[in-house]
Amino acid sequence: MTTVRSTPHPAMQLRELVFGAACAAALRAAARLGVADALGEEPATADELAAAVRAEPLPLRRLLRALSCYGVFAETDDGRYVHTEMSRLLKDDAPNSLKYICLWCTEPWTWDAWPVLEDAVRSGRTVFRDLYGKDFFQYLHEDATDSAQVFNRAMTTSSRQSAQDVAELLDLTGITTVADIGGGQGHVLAGLLEKHPSLKGTLLDLPGVVANADPRLRDGGELAGRMCIIPGDCRREVPVQADLYIIKNILEWDDESTRRTLRNVVAAAQPGARVVVIENLVDDSPSMKFTTAMDLLLLLNVGGAKHTKESMISRMTEAGLRVGEIRPINAYLHAFDSTVPE
Questions:
Q1: What's the 3-state SS for 126-177?
Q2: For the chain, where are the E strands, in sequence order?
Q3: Do 274 and 338 meet the contact criterion of CB atoms below 8 Å apart?
Q4: CA-CA distance, 215 to 234, in Å (whole number)?
Q5: Whole-structure pTM over 0.85, yes or no?
Q6: What's the farthest any 2 CA atoms get from each other in the chain?
Q7: Spatial distance between the Cα atoms of 269 and 62, rounded to a whole number of angstroms
Q8: What distance in Å separates the CA atoms of residue 111 and residue 213, rounded to the nearest whole number?
Q9: Rounded to an integer, what distance in angstroms lies between the CA atom of residue 50 and that of residue 97?
Q10: pLDDT tens digits along 12-23
């Protein structure tokens, strides 16, 4: 009797990991085709979906079959396709849509950068200038404007989704003014102002970013009367005094930029002011697979890094902050509460 041996589990896992690029490419293709938006609440055939997204039925069926293996869409017994919890996140209008995050993490430049990860690991520096002859954000805004728009959409989506969690977590007892440093379009700040009617806010970010601030914060918006919008670079100067400073998801540049930003906040703040740093961490987090992958991507494109709890505390302490409580905001973010010493 011949014994049929199944493939050892670790070997199968490794084979699947090696083809991780195929999974990422399949997600990107589905997002760009708009398959999730075309699939309604009723099961649909590949032919019906292909007609809706202007694709060939057989290749689309193969794409859906591959994604279904990962729980993105599901195939019924009669060969139709239905939504899963993950496939709904690819819809444009989903409350917690990850469509633009999927597109951002699979933009064309990423496929050039990943193969030279070995070089980045050997040298310990970004390899982006070697690939494109210019720094990452310069390339993005000068040569890849479509990718820059995807980046803006992805960051806006991410900020909106975390804004409510931040507003619910932060205790603002005794706080009358809050400054969001490098706060993007100000979604977190808007959430705080809506929850606390007596609070006043300041948004500081680059001119091109704050020009597109949340409409609630701009002239004519319902929160504009309690807002000040300042165009500027927090790595150069933080010309703001506030009871509370929020620094969210920006301390992942190179170490010198991170140190300058923290020092600038401490220099601007009055003794006793609170500084809350909110970051993804590469340790002690349910999102470690995603965050460690982003950490490697930061090494490639800007020479930055995600932090551990220890490294974040170290950077904050070096800047002169007294770090207190550290709390998870959600599965992806931690808040480091600190004060400027008296």
A1: CCHHHHHCCCHHHHHHHHCHHHHHHHHHHHHHHHHHHHHHHHHHCCCCCCCE
A2: 74-75, 81-82, 177-181, 200-205, 227-231, 244-248, 274-279, 322-328, 334-339
A3: yes
A4: 22
A5: yes
A6: 83
A7: 57
A8: 31
A9: 22
A10: 899 999 999 999
